[in-house]
Design brief:
The protein is an alpha/beta fold. It has helices spanning about 15-25, 35-45, 65-70, 75-85; strands spanning about 1-10, 30-35, 50-55, 90-95, 105-110. The protein has one domain (about 15-110): Nucleotidyltransferase, domain 5. Helix 2 links the parallel strand 2 (about 30-35) and strand 3.
Length: about 110
Amino acid sequence: MRIAGIGCRPGTTLPALLAALDAAGGADALATIHVREADLRPLARARALPLHLVDVTGIATPTRSPRILRAFGTGSVAEAAAIAAGGRLIHPRRTFGPPANAVTIAIAEVP
């Protein structure tokens, strides 16, 4: 099972989220942080996928954004969410837009 860990800017549109998920190769489930639930719930509904809300604080990630580290206690919301949902990271975060860098997605595999 593939889990897409997703981070996004507040207010990211459903079309932008759909395009990003498609570009990332799709997933069987989604994972994100609690404060992004309202942004990502429409994507979960549109694709009929479960949405896992996870705590990412303190999870080590292969990539690091200083801004995200300060705000959420991890280097990448997307990577940490995929890991926290029980996956082994197989694709580190990629950024998608427009707007530029509006969505980040990392893919993890769950046995």
